[in-house]
Amino acid sequence: MRDGTDGEQVRVVALGGGHGLYATLSAVRRLTDRITAIVTVADDGGSSGRLRAELGMIPPGDLRMALAALAGPAAGVWPAAVQHRFGGSGALAGHAVGNLILAGLTELLGDPVAALDELGRVLDVTGRVLPMASTALTIEADVSGLEADPRVGRRIRGQVAVATTPGTVRRVRLIPSDPPACAAAVAAIGDADLVVLGPGSWFTSVIPHVLVPELHDAMARTGARKVLVLNLAAEPGETAGFSTERHLHVLAQHAPAFRVDHVVVDSASVPAGRERDQLVRAAARLGAESVFTDVAEPRTTMHHPGRLAATLEQLAPASAKRRTA
Question: Which ranges does the record mark as transmembrane (predicted)?
């Protein structure tokens, strides 16, 4: 494993989607400029879902949020502009400006990665934002608790449907099941010093990354230190009622061979006692050391960027520790 003794900044790859990935990127940009965000592409709701259906493009919303998280000071008003949503009730209502820009750039350049790189230059982005696959994906889930007989399961399809189901999600899969991974994303994982997965919507933003065979294999082969950041609380819908330990169990069920070096857990979310002991054992089955620390924004279920950055700095190779946050 590279230890940063060459004096270069640590190379970080962060995988996820939505607000969870935004939190990770807000933290790691305090440690390094060499960041690659690898983003889920299964969203089928809102502005992203409309553009996906109308133009056949990969959904841009989570990609846009990652770009905004990494925007630099020279970008001026552009970060706020790409996040702005149109109001009203017309054809543009609900669309984010950045989603439309990415749609236009993708049509103009003929390549979603080139579109992301171009908008990244406008936003003075620190690092790079990439899709996890080069085609839009669909999430399908096996869900129980939707029928009168609790033993009867139902198959539901679509990220929004999975994320908001009142039932219990048992398993998810991707359609297609063997999608082409973004080649640049695979290369970035291979070249990384630190790979961070999570936090985020467990079944729709975190687990999908280990279901893309080329990404899974790249994470297995990389010499990077791998860190899994757990959510601060179960989410209404897809993980309602889940213990922290159960999050690890379902990840292992979906990817039995997946291994990480550290699992980051907010100390207050899992107090010392039986639940913490069970979590430590579940993490060990992933090959991981459990790291209990304070990473929450006070009185919220959101990660504090500074606290998360400090934790990742301690787990990162030495080059990250020589930078001033």
Answer: none
